[in-house]
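Meet our chain:
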Amino acid sequence: MLSHNRSLTELDLRQNDLGDLGAKLLCEGLKQPTCQLRGLRLADCGLTAKGFQDLAFVLSTNRSLTQLDLSFNKLLDSGAQHLSQKLRMYTCKLQQLL
């Protein structure tokens, strides 16, 4: 859906129990060059370091995502490390991270 629906620019999945598997599936759509999503809210979705690792990879490839809410998840040090590495890349277009 993320790669085929060009009018979808905001997605709010807060408080859905996606977990890391759900995040991985979501990232498959976010990796597609046709994905136009600019804002994604994943607050309190049961994500752990593995989910953050998958999302971090997307940050270096996705050209449209500028807002990402990951609050109230279990980031831990390893998740923070994955994110910080990708946020420093010039290909990352993210402007707001919560």
Remarks:
- Residues 10-97 form a domain with the Leucine-rich repeat, LRR (right-handed beta-alpha superhelix) fold (CATH 3.80.10.10).
